[in-house]
Amino acid sequence: MLNEKIKKLKISSTLALVVKAKELKDQGKRVISLSVGEPDFPTPEYIKEAGIKAIRGNKTKYTMASGIKELREALIKVYEREQGYRFNLNEIMIHPGSKFSIFLIANVLLSEKDRVLIPKPYWVSYPEIVKFTGATPVFIDSWNGKNFYYKFEDYLPEIKKGIKLFILSSPSNPTGIIMKEEELEKLLKAAIEYDFYLLVDECYRRIIYDNSEYPSPLKIFPEAKDRVLISGSFSKTFAMTGWRVGFTFGPEEIINYMKILQSHSTSNPATPSQYAALVALTDEKDEIEKMVREYERRRDLAYSLLKKIPKIKITKPEGAFYLFPYVKDAIKGKFKNTYEFSEHLIEKFHVVVVPGEAFGTEGFIRISYAASEEDIREGISKIAEAING
Ligand SMILES: Cc1ncc(COP(=O)(O)O)c(C=O)c1O
After folding, report:
1. What does the pLDDT look like over 140-196, one tens digit per residue?
2. Cβ distance 377 to 301 under 8 Å?
3. I need a labelling partner for 274 at 20 to 30 A (CA). Which of 151, 170, 335, 346 fits?
4. How far apart (Å, rounded) are the C-alpha atoms in residues 2 and 6?
5. Quick one: which of 98, 79, 97 has its CA closest to 89?
């Protein structure tokens, strides 16, 4: 007999679409992929060089399970400079990717009786990670019929019923929305009043547009320090998805248990990757900012093209590299749901997007603009054709 908890996990609902796209590619067809969740840029040269240098310099042995001290120190400095709060060395650890940060946080905090509040649309892994701990995910919609927003008052009734953890993705995957400072402040105050933890998944924090200020939880309300866990990543900012480096800032007691669990599971993140991440951070080059400005240019392009399609409602993203238009009215009478529409887009037009169902919200599609301008133009024109045709 298998473990009961593992049987609750679902394989990604988009897998069948990925398989279809691959079949078409294997047949030599040009497939336009607007579904990827990673930068289309290669890892910058100076970071690659640092990785090679680390290997040549024999930085190839185990490190402390919590990661090398130099990288933790560098992250503390950057966080203090950019977000106005100074953590100490026992309040940070490095992981093989930030997905593992979220996995460890959930497993250290949650037991079977616990409820976890997750705004919808959510990043695909949150509910599955929570279910694996035996706890129960509770969802609240952040779509108000016109656009996306995070509004504290909407979460309050569920918070009052008792939650152990609130998971916030900001800037959000899939909507690109950043929680506003006033709402975040209310949430932080509530974390103390109603005794829950707030996990802020900041993996897109550096990819933000329109000169927006990212509201830093602990600058806004440092009193909530014992209630806040911050999960960060090198994957998106530095185009380092395959190197697997992420990190957590949080209360020392929780970090300690996370270290124990990491030491008994993955051990340290790959050593050369940690040294490459250290250089990525301490010797940051212009090209990091240039990638962000390029995403911003593509966001403007994709947003303006989508806005021209009748009956589509769309919120302008403030960060990350996704658009999440509401297409339900536009496809009404032609397709049963957005999964069927996405299937049709692949089969007839060879365009791959992710249906809203994957994020808990039917009626939407996620379009990634971590793609070339040509693909964005052609892909969106085919989406329009599929809707109008
Ligand atoms: C919202 C969000 N959180 C976390 C991750 C995990 O990133 P990584 O494990 O590569 O650091 C991703 C990756 O797609 C993401 O979109």
Report:
1. 999 988 888 889 999 999 999 999 999 999 999 999 999 999 999 999 999 999 999
2. yes
3. 170
4. 7
5. 79
Look at residues 272, 225, 191 and name the one whose alpha carbon lies nearest to residue 83.
Answer: 225
Q: Residues in the chain, how many? A: 389
Q: Which two tokens stand for residue 137?
A: 């995910």
Q: Which residues line ligand 1 (CB under 6 A)?
A: 37, 97-99, 123, 169, 173, 201, 203, 233, 235, 241, 246
Task: Give residue 203 CA to ligand 1 midpoint distance, Å.
Answer: 6
Ligand 1: atom nearest CA of 201 is: 3
Query: Which residue, judged by its Cα, is nearest atom 16 of ligand 1?
Result: 173
Tokens of 176: 């690109």
Torsion of CA 99, 262, 50, 173, to 10 degrees: 10
Write the single-letter amino acid at 87.
F
Residue 332 has pLDDT above 80, yes or no: yes
The residues, ordered by sequence, that sit 6+ positions from 288 with a Cβ below 8 Å of its Cβ are 44, 206, 237, 238, 280
pLDDT in tens, 38-85: 999 999 999 999 999 999 999 999 999 999 999 999 999 999 999 999
Query: Phi and psi for 338 in degrees, rounded to 5?
Result: -75, -20
Q: Residue 60's CB: how many other CB atoms inside 10 A? A: 12
Nearest CA, atom 13, ligand 1: 37
